[in-house]
Each structure stands twice: as structure tokens, then as C-alpha cells.
Write a structure and sequence with these properties.
Elements: H1 3-27, E1 39-44, E2 48-51, H2 57-76, H3 91-110, H4 118-122, H5 125-138, H6 140-143, H7 167-176, E3 178-182, H8 191-205, H9 212-218, H10 222-229, H11 255-264, E4 266-270, H12 274-292
Antiparallel strand pairs: 1-2, 3-4
Length: about 300
């Protein structure tokens, strides 16, 4: 904050305090030459008058007490422009202290799992309870509270893994994040009609109902898709390319959604969690995810 605005805030604050004290004093006593009266002089309906009773003394002193409190507060804590108060307290400082205190407590708790393997942590009740809380705070927004995902967000309870489902692959996904990109393929598969044909071919890979004639027309064009998904359509975990031969669909298996994927492409991103969770919590979360999928019991 600049010196000008700091001074302006100080001026307004002090002026308000002085003004409050002046207003209390002026309104708590009779002005010179003014005659004391039991009423204010206002009359309604011919005989309804308003009493001119002063504030109770305890109430008046309560107002003065608030003024004293405000002065003490502004001396001790920030409130007068750039003046930080004699205690040196700040919201940022208190927040950082609380975060540091909680980080220390978390490190002490998770340190007990340092010597455990990921599979061992998956069977530890305390580790899984802590991981469940982390999942609810950090992962459920995308993958769902039960881990079953949503369109565009992988189901973590099945055995379909875009980037691999072993311990190292899952831990890498958590720590480093993942980015998957499928470019629009309309021109590559032969235009609008080629997209329709490819939709039928993709559906045929997983045994869904399809038009055999249209699927056959798309077969020669499959090589451009097979570069990522594999010539047999089983995908490649090295690229995060989905397996198109199973019943697990990241978006949907209906024709309109498949056509949308081909024409518009897809972009998915999972942010890296290591800067947020740290090494200890990342390992615990890897155990939790593997347990969700049934790979670790």
C-alpha cells in the first residue's frame, strides 16, 4: 500500500473515533440555554408524546468502552494503514503457522508408513482411513466419491488402466499427473462418411451392435487410429490410449459420442499431486487406488 493511501486510511479511522466520542458527549448532555423537558415536544394524535429520556449511564459507558477497545486493538493489531501493530501479527503469518503445524502433524502420522510397501499399506486400516479422507478432498471431485468416475474421468474401481495399473504406474500418475490428447481425425479417416464408417468399426471392436458393411469400409483406414490404439485396438498404456475392445468406455459407447471423439478429439489432464501431497501421502494414495480396483487386498 502506498504512503498516500496508508495516511488516508489512518486519517479516516482516527477521525471516525474522534467523531464517535464527540457525538456521544454532545448527545449526552443538555445544550447551553436549552430547558430540560420530560418530552421531545413531538405530539401525535393530539395527546401522544415522546419522552425525552437520556441513555442509561451504563449504556453510555458501554459506548465509551467500545472506543477504548478500538484504540487498544489498533495499537496491537493491523488496522491503521501500513502500521502492523506492536504485536506484529498478520493473517498471512497466522495462516502459515497453522499450515506448518498441521504439516508437522501429518508428517508424524504418515511417517509410520515409510517402511511399508504399497501393498502392505493397502491392508493397513489406519493408512486406508487416512487415504479415504484425502481421496474425498482431492480426488472425488473428478473420480467420484466411490471412485467410479464420470464421462471423461476414469473409473478407478475396474481393471481398465489408461497408463498402466501396476504400483509404479499408479504412483507415477499420482505424483506427476497425466495429459492425454487425441487430435481431431475427420480428415484422416476420410471425411464425414469416413467418420460414420469408423464409428461402426470402433463399435465392432468391443462386440457392440454395428453395421458390418460400414465397418468393413473403415477397416483400411484403421491404421491411422491403430498407431495409438494398437492394430488390435487394445490400446497402449505408454501413450494413455484406451483399450477399445473391452466394455469400459471413458466417455460413452453410443454412436454420437464416438463420432464426437473422432471429429473433435479429446484432451484430458490430471494435475500432478506430488507438490500438494508430498511423497508420503502419494504412496498411501497409490495403495488406496490399487485397493479400489481390487489389485491390492
Amino acid at each position: 500500500m502506498s504512503s498516500f493511501w496508508s495516511g488516508w486510511i489512518i486519517l479516516l479511522t482516527v477521525a471516525n473515533i474522534i467523531g464517535a466520542v464527540w457525538l456521544l458527549r454532545v448527545t449526552s448532555k443538555t445544550s447551553p440555554g436549552e430547558k430540560a423537558s420530560d418530552t421531545t415536544g413531538h405530539v401525535w394524535d393530539g395527546d401522544l408524546e415522546e419522552y425525552n429520556n437520556p441513555l442509561p449511564r451504563w449504556w453510555l459507558w458501554l459506548f465509551y468502552l467500545t472506543v477504548v477497545f478500538s484504540i487498544v486493538y489498533l495499537v496491537l493489531y493491523p488496522g491503521l494503514g501500513n502500521f502492523q501493530g506492536v504485536l506484529g501479527w498478520s493473517q498471512t503469518g497466522q495462516y502459515q503457522e497453522e499450515v506448518a503445524r498441521m504439516d508437522e502433524r501429518q508428517q508424524q502420522f504418515f511417517a509410520r508408513f515409510d517402511d511399508m510397501s504399497i501393498s502392505e499399506m493397502a491392508g493397513d486400516t489406519e493408512a486406508m482411513a487416512a487415504a479415504g479422507n484425502i481421496f474425498g478432498n482431492r480426488c472425488a471431485q473428478c473420480h467420484g466419491a466411490d471412485g467410479r468416475g464420470a464421462p471423461g474421468f476414469p473409473n478407478l474401481t475396474d481393471d481398465a488402466w489408461l497408463w498402466g495399473g501396476d504400483e509404479n504406474a499408479v504412483l507415477t500418475s499420482i505424483k506427476q499427473g497425466r495429459s492425454g490428447v487425441m487430435p481431431p481425425m475427420t480428415d484422416a479417416v476420410g471425411g464425414t462418411s469416413g467418420v460414420s464408417n469408423m464409428v461402426e468399426y470402433v463399435r465392432s471392436l468391443s462386440g457392440l451392435s454395428h453395421d458390418e458393411t460400414m465397418a468393413a469400409k473403415a477397416a483400411p483406414m484403421w491404421a491411422v487410429c491403430g498407431a495409438c490404439h494398437g492394430m488390435d485396438g487394445t490400446g497402449q498404456t505408454a501413450m494413455g490410449a484406451p483399450d477399445l475392445t473391452d466394455e469400459n468406455w471413458l466417455y460413452s459407447a453410443d454412436r454420437a459420442t464416438i463420432a464426437e471423439s473422432i471429429t473433435q478429439g479429446r484432451q484430458n489432464h490430471m494435475p500432478a499431486q506430488l507438490p500438494i501431497l508430498g511423497e508420503q501421502q502419494s504412496r498411501v494414495m497409490a495403495a488406496y487406488i490399487l485397493r479400489l480396483s481390487g489389485r491390492a487386498e
